[in-house]
Write a structure and sequence with these properties.
about 240 residues
């Protein structure tokens, strides 16, 4: 019976990584790009609160989908480590560390999203605070989530650069994917730097700065899902000494 290790069946692992990546993109895109962008009104806490309360079930489903993202990403990270480890175990471990810290911070950031609906709908808050104060409190939760999420993306940007380097050197994955992931990492770093430390700069480069992110992550996801790895080069890499 053939072994189910990644050394024996790399295509199964690659396609599982691609499928998991696809769900991460879909859940994250729906939650952040569709629901949150539709309900959150910048610089208007009252309008945002009314939108969330008017579509509370949609908001809660969106937050649930948002929480699934780091859970699925842990599985994806494990498979990516197994796929990239033959190139350089040390560099792959560094990639895991930066990505793991990113996922930990991102998971904590979802706590703030989970608090928004209860703050707005719980009668206890309405009994203690004026409506505008309740709206401001919910807006503070959204701001805290946004800050924590951008901190997570700083670590993820570095992880993307590391994975891009590993992919480029692998031989069993196309070099252009490595370049695209490296560019995605640089884009994440530029976008998060602007959002956290230079808002005027961030607004000037948004949203086009995230185009390399969309292209790079989508390309890697689809390549793993459809093409997998180059099997002869994968086997050849397993037979060569590990590089630092």
């Amino acid at each position: 019976m053939k072994s189910w290790t990644i050394e024996a069946r790399p295509q199964v692992y690659a396609r599982l990584a691609g499928l998991t990546y696809l769900f991460v993109i879909l859940f994250g895109g729906y939650s952040e790009g569709v629901v949150m962008s539709a309900l959150i009104v910048p610089d208007d806490a009252a309008a945002t609160a009314r939108n969330i309360l008017g579509a509370e079930s949609v908001w809660r489903m969106s937050v649930g989908g948002n929480l699934l993202v780091p859970i699925l990403a842990v599985l994806q990270l494990w498979i990516e480590y197994l796929l990239l480890k033959p190139v350089s175990r040390n560099l792959a471990l560094l990639f895991v560390l930066f990505n793991g810290v990113s996922l930990a911070i991102e998971t904590v950031s979802k706590l703030f999203l989970l608090m928004v609906a209860p703050v707005l709908s719980d009668p206890g808050y309405a009994a203690v605070f004026a409506p505008d104060q309740v709206y401001a409190l919910a807006d503070l939760m959204l701001t805290a989530h946004d800050i924590a999420f951008h901190i997570a993306l700083l670590f993820f940007g570095i992880a993307c650069i590391l994975s891009g380097s590993l992919i480029f050197r692998s031989g069993y994955l196309p070099k252009f994917l490595g370049v695209l992931m490296g560019l995605a990492g640089v884009s994440y770093l530029a976008a998060t730097f602007g959002a956290l430390f230079a808002p005027a700069f961030g607004q000037a480069i948004s949203p086009w700065i995230l185009l390399p992110v969309l292209v790079g992550e989508s390309a890697l996801c689809l390549w793993l899902l459809i093409m997998g790895v180059n099997l002869p080069r994968w086997r050849a890499r397993l037979e060569t000494p590990e590089r630092a």
